[in-house]
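LOG
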Amino acid sequence: MALVRLAHGSPGPSARENLDLVRAWAEAAAYDGAAVLVTPELFCAPDPTASGGALRARFAEIARTSGIALVASSPEHDAGARFVALSWWDRFGNLGGHVRKHRPGPAQLASGFSAWDGPPAAAALQGEGLEGGVICCADDVEIPEFAAFLEHSGAARALVSGSETTALLEFRNAHIPDSAYWNPMRTGVPFSQRGPLPQPLLRPLPRPYAGWFDARPPEPRDGS
């Protein structure tokens, strides 16, 4: 697969300096020929009250101007609840996928983040060498049923974002029976998904979520 650059580190107290570091990582990775940069979870916004929409707009701009696909995390607000979100943008700054974290860590729960109880929608990566890849939060992929759901939905690998660290996980056929698959409480997915999804995730069809990206209106979907 294409070269993946995995970033590691603890965020500093300045949001601007954290964003500048992400840009420096992206520019260096692109210069070295990497196709995608994966950044640590909530590296630029550990505070759940931060503006997620404004931060996602900055991430899109970094991807576009650096010429590299970017996986980055941000807060997401929805009807009074706050979620840890993970998104990826292609090297042109176009949004490719967006997921919510199912199992926030104790510190995240204590600071006001909520757990998402919807389905583990795979945000399929696009681009030469990235086929079969998805994005995932580190705490979520440690749930065996969650990992099995992604694998049996067609995912071959996951770009994983965790606290202070990142990883590339190759799925190894977990052999978990169908009865142990992930059983979410809700249906549909919480974002306007772009690009192909594995067929099992298309039933039920994804519904647009109007509020996640507050920098622009959602795009309509046929048949939603």
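LOG (cont.) second protein
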Amino acid sequence: MTDVTSAKSTRRSHHWRRDVTELAGLFTAVAVADAIADLIGHQPDGPYLLIASAVALAVTAAFHAWWSRRHSHAPPPTAIDPITNSGSDSDDDGAAPSHRTIPAASTLVTASTAAGPARSPEDTVLWRMRTTVRDAPGSLAALCAALARHRVDILTLQTHPLAHGTVDEFLLRAPAALQAQQLSRAISAAGGGSTWIERADAHDLVDTPTRILGLATRTALDAAELPLALRQLLGRCTIHSLPAVSITGRSTGETAPVEGVLEGTVMRLRDPSGGAITVERPYLPFTPTEFARARALVELDARLGPRVPRGEHVLTLPEGNEITVRRVDRSDLEAARAMHDRCSEQTLRLRYHGPVHDADRYLDHLLSPRFGRTLAVETASGRLVALGHLLWDDDETEVALLVEDEWQRRGIGSELLGRLVVLAIEAGCESVYAVTQASNTGMVATMRALSLPLDYQIEEGTLVVTARLDATPVRSLPPYEQAGR
């Protein structure tokens, strides 16, 4: 017989004996009451004595019922504190639990356990939230309780200790009806300060170590990924890549110590390709943990040196000529300058919006992976005939095209722009813009061929066309045999 069966048999035997005992006691009580009634019923004070006996019997029955309910089951286990994962009884020294004590998964208070049945996924949204609290006992418990009262589930939690206080970073699943302002007020009332909230998506469900390893892998494969990896690592921020030498060849004086500099909401890191990388955000100071992670990514980029994926795609134009589309970098600088020499002044003026003799100076900047990605079109003989640039411009992204005169109006510009837009979508860009002259109908037609929502701004003859990428899903590249459009 197992222990469980034995325990059940013991409980059944215990209940049977107790019931027989109670029944016998009841008959005994009835007999005694009848004897007492007969004995005192004929006395002068008999009625009063009977009333007193009835009251005493009622009190005794009530006490017996209370005692039975209290001892009919085993005492409940010690209550588990959802924050400290310990019993509710205080320790001998009366010390409160520390803020850093993290709840076990089975005891964490969530919306589904604290406020009724869980809501369907269609009724919830994901939020990323950061808040600063005092590193004191009970501060994390107060935050968790405030979230539970608003039916908010805590999916992940990271802590960033500071010299004075702690930054807690949450990934939350909240009811769709709960506004960010309401959540912020609740956190503020629970002791949080400098709270920052933004919408999250399914990609944020990946745990932090896995996400950082993924960013490191992307950075290792492509030097152009470093600014994007830093932005995804640190959240919504602005990243400036400042070269050590300007386009005109003058020293900019931009540099940073090898170990980097952390100053509140700004961090400066030494760019392995020269110059400095500045990261800024307006809402919360960077923590030492974030600074260490960013510095590790930059160090990885520096150790690996210049690198660009060398994938090539061979396309066939309508007239039968084969061309190759590939990534290029500074190692292709001479071939790009040779293409400049073959372009007319009008073509260069439409592309660079300035003096033609300065065009070569831009190439070193444009071909650097630090400032974006560049695609080139190469003929069967190995000559570059077109360049397409995707340039990181703070929080925005610029696209630019240059096609050699002899190869214009063959669909090469549309092919390059379509591939650049796909790269921008994969990088998480919300829009891309092109700057050209209002008279450049070819560039306008190429942007319209994307079939994306477009915004136009014209000022003093300069036209800025912005394509919104968040209104369309990532589309696949066109088949090679249909690429020349």
